[in-house]
Amino acid sequence: MDSTLIGEQEIQQLRAATKGTAQKVHFNNAGASLPPDVVVDTVINYLLEEAACGGYETEAKYKQQLDNTYDLVARLINAEKEEIAMVENASTAWMLAFNGIDFKPGDVVLTTEMEYVTNLIGLLNAKKTLGIEFKVILNDEYGNFSLEALEAAISPKTKLIAVTHIPSTAGGMIPVVEIGQIARKHGILYLVDACQSAGQIPVDVKEIGCDMLAVTGRKYLRAPRGTGFLFVRKAVQDQLKLTFIDGSTAASVSEDDFKVRDDARRFELYEKNRALILGLGKAVEYALDIGVDRIWLRIQYLAGLLRNQLENIEGITVHDAGDQQCGIVTFSVKGMDSATVKNLLGEKQINVSVGKAVSTLIYMNKHHLTSIVRASVHYYNTEEEIEFLCDTLKTILK
């Protein structure tokens, strides 16, 4: 692990390489980070070349660079490139993995109170259409996930453990490595939603022990919207049904049969935005060059600083709990709904977002929250921006 802190001079260089930081105080990185200029230029230049030379012709010219995106993503999560499929977002990745499982009536899925709305809908749909059951392992009173409760819930009917590593509307984290150890011990399929994790915290699929991992590009990876990827461990690829099939799915085709290709690209469709894939590759390369270990140290420092300052402002309640906390900071302002707070901060060029109850419904209902203000920090944010946010909130409260 590289424990070298990102210094002030480097932060200023990184900010200078991201035009958006000069225009906004951006604390909505859990929604969509500001992309580096080099990522934007990569996408635009590819599109311009397509327009001038033709789409197929440009793709052929950049074949090596496009293929290298798989290598970069594999390096990011310590996987093999044959285990990576490019998709549009984490929801697509999660659904491809989940719907590919051969569920039978009575099969049980174990999950957490932190599951994202898309995943919850997927579970509910499988319950209605396939007759599965799912059980939610609740966090304890301190906001920590109970590994003991998870293990106690496992039965011969347990088909899958599906967890969201970092939730949408809370600053806590789920212990994915320890959950993976339990899944492996019992021989249970393991699906991780890492859409808020990749680019924020080091992700190692071998250490986690997951069979499938879903990621989006637009959040902490600082990639373009409409990008993402799915990891499927080589050993389980043949266990998953193919939800979609087109000509690129097959390694060979005859008039009466076809043979599926032997890597994770079987889960892709042929037509996709090549400019965005190059942009994703450039964003991953950018993060790797900085060092995800260093990024994570910086994010933890800034998030801790923000939480401490918010907790010292009368009228503000910070909702984050648990021993492990991330770059997402959630809070509410006394006597004011979250949307109003967001809009007032927006007038001062401060970007935050509103976390609605539906996003992580089980968690929000448990804590009687209808919405929260979500301020999510990234390494390019500064102490001065945190101070400005807190000073603005103090003014709003007057």
TrEMBL record:
Gene Ontology molecular functions: lyase activity
Domain of life, per lineage: Bacteria
InterPro entries: Aminotrans_V_dom, Aminotrans_V_PyrdxlP_BS, PyrdxlP-dep_Trfase, PyrdxlP-dep_Trfase_major, PyrdxlP-dep_Trfase_small
Limits of the Aminotransferase class V domain: 27-388
Pfam families reported for this sequence: Aminotran_5
Keywords from the named record: Lyase, Pyridoxal phosphate
Cofactor list: pyridoxal 5'-phosphate
Family affiliation: Belongs to the class-V pyridoxal-phosphate-dependent aminotransferase family.
This protein's name: Selenocysteine lyase/cysteine desulfurase
Upper lineage: Bacteria, Pseudomonadati, Bacteroidota, Sphingobacteriia, Sphingobacteriales
